[in-house]
Amino acid sequence: MSIEKKQQESLTPVPSNLGQVEEGSHDAVFGEITSDGPNYRSVGWLGTAVLMMKTQIGLGVLSIPTAFDSLGVVPGVIVLCTIAAITTWSDYIIGVFKLRHREVYGIDDVGELLCGKLGRIVLGGAFILWWVFVAGSGMLGISIGLNAVSSHATCTAVYVAIAAIVAFLFGSIRTLGRISWLAWIGLFCILTSILIVTIAVGIQDRPAAAPKDAVWVPNYKIVKSDATFTEAITAVTTIVFAYAGTPAFFSIASEMRDPTHYNRALVLCQSVVTVFYLAIGIVIYYFCGSYVSSPALGSAGPTVKIVSYGFALPGLIVSTLLFVHITAKYVFIRLLHGSRHLVANTVTHWSVWIGCTLGTTLVAYIIASAIPVFSDLVSLVGALLGTPMCFQPMAGMWLFDNWSKGKDHRTTKWMFMVGWCVFIIIAGTFLMIGGTYGSVVTIMDTYKESGGSAAWSCADNSS
């Protein structure tokens, strides 16, 4: 169905009390909401905030101290705050755009509005590929946690398979409203695990990787003047990765009970995430310096590592099932949009839904297990696809809605915002190109040093 036709359908008012299923209620994305099917529009603003936080606080936060090590404390804080401000604006534009264009479900719809069918294909393909890789990264993160907690009791490939099975089972829950309670648990667990490490590195006399035969003096750098371009741009894209839940905010906003409450959820999410990232990055890097581990949970020694990963595992599981769910839901809606099977408990509905979650899980599992340099490849895909989905489209969205206003009356505010959008497009393009270059160099260096890991490896990946 074309965007134009969807826009005509979106003129039908969406009830603000859609959390209570009403026979015949119409939604511009899901169609007729009836009692004979899932209530997709059931997430409150607090649930929205925690889902937003959980798409971000997970894998990315564990690498922030390492990013600070590459940049130094002051540049690290400046970069983090800058990325936080830009992505918060991008996230805000998503909420505004969704209210003006109720028919928009994913970033591919934005691509079609901005660039026609080619834009839909490019952004839709980028969205699927990016989140499949992130789901695979989540599975590897779970395997690291299981290896750490069990002291590598069995083959790592088995743990990755277990992670995939768990992600499939819980990711197959049909609505974000029913997943939001899991997000609360996951968020609490991941925050607790990182706080344990933060406190531990502060009270110990030295980080686990530091030399034991000399007096320990923290070797943190205020500014790391000898950082290479590759190290610096990789650190910046690592921080972008920590805020790269932005493309998923389209899906989350679409399932809100009252979309007008989107901004309050966003403010809570970004405030908590940014304060937490700053605290973790500064404190852990201050006490560990160049001996900070990546992921950061291993920085305080084997005992704390086991305890922290024990708490982190539920958080890593929730992140991964969210990645699987959001990717599968995107494909599911594209396949059944406009059909009664989208909102009815029919055999077709269930077959397509389970097929989407199972297919997403299998592809993520195979990619994660079979590629020798998967972690570096995630960085490459993140720079090439994740970064431009957090910057350029949102600038285009603002220009799409506001460009015509400048033809009648060019105010100072309008000119400033046009300049801001141009800056966002240029900055996003620079990070995309620079981050891609840095990731390619890292992959080449990894191959020179070790040749990568074996496919379906049994080796312990938690050390």
Short descriptors:
globular, L-amino acid transmembrane transporter activity, transmembrane helix, membrane, Hydantoin permease, 463 residues, 1% strand, 69% helix, mainly alpha, 16 helices, two-stranded antiparallel ribbon
Detail the topology: elements first, then pairings:
Elements: H1 3-9, E1 25-27, E2 31-33, H2 45-56, H3 64-71, H4 73-100, H5 107-150, H6 156-171, H7 176-203, H8 229-242, H9 249-254, H10 262-288, H11 302-336, H12 347-370, H13 374-390, H14 392-402, H15 405-408, H16 412-449
Antiparallel strand pairs: 1-2
In CATH, the topology is named Hydantoin permease
Q: Helical residue percent?
A: 55-70%
Classified by CATH, the class is: Mainly Alpha
Strand runs, count: 2
Please name the CATH architecture: Orthogonal Bundle
Largest sheet: 2 strands, antiparallel
Q: Structurally, how many domains make up the residues?
A: 1
Mean pLDDT over the residues = 88
- Report how far the terminal alpha carbons are from each other: 50 Å
Shape: globular
User: Could you tell me the strand content as a percent range?
Assistant: under 5%
Secondary-structure element order, N to C: HEEHHHHHHHHHHHHHHH
Q: Assign the CATH superfamily.
A: Hydantoin permease
Strand order of the largest sheet: 1-2
Q: What is Rg?
A: 22 Å
**Unreliable sequence segments:** 4-21
